[in-house]
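Duplicate of #3305? Posting structure anyway:
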């Protein structure tokens, strides 16, 4: 986990837009940077604050205007480069860790990559004592034997620790168990911590129900492991 990082929202932050990658705070994503403009962006970030805001394209306009300035969705995740290596032809491999939710207030004129003035969207996260009941409920779900059949849930349960703040746990769990870009973006855009926690609990319950139904209708097996259809 990154210790609390002070972000100067009075200064523009580089934007790195992709069509199907959503980063949430506390989670990390590996990135291979190879386009000239984004290699420049990476070098500039490494030479200064180390911050890059992961953004998402709006609609499909980017397919015809990728090298221009296609429309971006408003909500972004400000990330910090926690690891990097420079590879051939000035390309980079990065590990970017999400720091905070923000939204684009205003893009600024800049070349060759895009920058924007951002504003944070999550200003008053709840104290641990205020979500203790929901935390226990979430931990019970993550320990459920049915759900732990899923590698992602089992992995979360294995590294679960009381030292991990509840809202960090929620963001990490969403990244692990939810691969749907629209759902991830909805949780990035949701400023209310309790709403995200409730959404995750509901998703896990629905997943458990699906697994239970699937198990009920699974064909029986004979002794040698062959299914009987």
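Output from current build:
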């Amino acid at each position: 986990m990154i210790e609390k990082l002070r972000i100067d929202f009075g200064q523009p932050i580089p934007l790195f837009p992709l069509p199907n990658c959503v980063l949430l705070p506390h989670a990390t994503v590996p990135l291979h940077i190879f386009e000239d403009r984004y290699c420049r962006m990476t070098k500039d970030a490494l030479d200064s604050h180390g911050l890059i805001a992961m953004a998402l394209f709006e609609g499909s306009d980017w397919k015809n205007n990728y090298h221009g300035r296609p429309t971006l969705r408003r909500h972004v995740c400000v990330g910090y480069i926690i690891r990097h290596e420079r590879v051939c032809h000035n390309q980079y491999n990065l590990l970017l860790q999400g720091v905070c939710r923000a939204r684009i207030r205003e893009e600024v004129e800049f070349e060759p990559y895009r920058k924007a003035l951002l504003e944070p969207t999550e200003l008053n996260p709840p104290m641990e004592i205020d979500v203790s009941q929901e935390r226990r409920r979430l931990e019970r779900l993550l320990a459920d034997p049915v759900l732990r059949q899923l590698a992602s849930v089992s992995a979360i349960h294995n590294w679960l620790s009381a030292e991990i703040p509840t809202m960090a746990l929620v963001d990490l769990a969403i990244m692990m168990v939810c691969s749907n870009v629209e759902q991830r973006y909805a949780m990035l855009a949701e400023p209310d911590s309790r709403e995200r926690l409730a959404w995750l609990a509901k998703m896990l319950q629905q997943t458990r129900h699906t697994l239970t139904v699937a198990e009920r209708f699974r064909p029986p097996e004979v002794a040698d492991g062959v299914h009987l259809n």
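Confirmed duplicate; merging threads. The first helix runs from residue 36 to 46. The longest strand covers residues 91-108.
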